Amino acid sequence: MIALLPHGLAALSAVILAVAGFAGGWTVTAAAGLCVLALAVGWGDLLRLPHRPGTAVLVGALGVAGLVIGTLASTTQDRLPQPLSVFAAVIAIAVLTAFAHELVRQDGRRNLVESLTGTVTGQVIAVLASGWVLLFYTRPGSSAIVVTAAAVAGGRLASGLPLPLPFGVMSWVGVVVGVVAALVASFFVSGIPPLNAVVVGLTVSGVAVAIDQLFGPAPDRLVDLSMLARAAAPVAAAGTVAFAVIRIGIG
Known about the structure:
With 251 residues, this protein is an all-alpha fold. It has helices at 5-20, 25-47, 52-75, 87-104, 112-128, 131-136, 142-159, 167-186, 194-214, 226-249.
C-alpha cells in the first residue's frame, strides 16, 4: 500500500490546482509552487544524487523563478504572443547554475555527470510547472486547469491500482482512465470541446505515466523524501504539455 502513496499525492496535487484555478492567477501560482517545493525536496533522493542540498536549492529556485516570470508575463497589459519564449532564458540559467553548483562542491565532485544531468533535469521539470499558470491565462481559463487536473489525477490513480495485471498494462490503464477523466470533466466546465479534452487527456496522462515509469518501483518505506518528487514530477510536467495542446487546439 505504501507504493500507492505517490499516486495519491499526485492526485491530491492535481485537485489542489483545480480548486486554485477558480480562485485566481496568483493562487494557481502558489499551488504550483507547492508542487515545485515537493519536487525540490525529494529530487535528490529520487535520483540518489551526491550533493542533495545544493540540488534542492537549484530546483526550487528555478521552479519558483519560472512561476513568477510566467505569472508576470501573463498579466502584463500586452501579453506575449509566444508565452513559452520567456522561459528560454530560465532554462539557460538552469544550465549555468547547475555547472556553478558542481564548481563549488567540496566533496571531490564524485559522480559529476550524474549530479550535473540530474540537477538540470530537475530544474527543467520544475520550470515546466509554470505551464499551470499559463493555462489559467489561456482562453478557457480555469476550465483548462480542471480538465488537465482530471487527466492527471485519473491517470495517476489508475496506474497505481494494485490489480493483478502486468506492470506495462497498468500504464495503459492509467492513460485510458486519464482520457476518460478529461472527457468527463469537459462536460462540467465550459470552453473545452470534447475532442480537445480527449487530446489533452491522452497527452497529459501519457506524459505523467511515462515520467513515473522512468523512476522504477516505489520505495517500500513510508518516510522517504523521494516519494514527494515521484508524485510532483508528473504533475509539474503536465502543465506545460496541456498548455501547448490547448494553445494549438483552441488558440
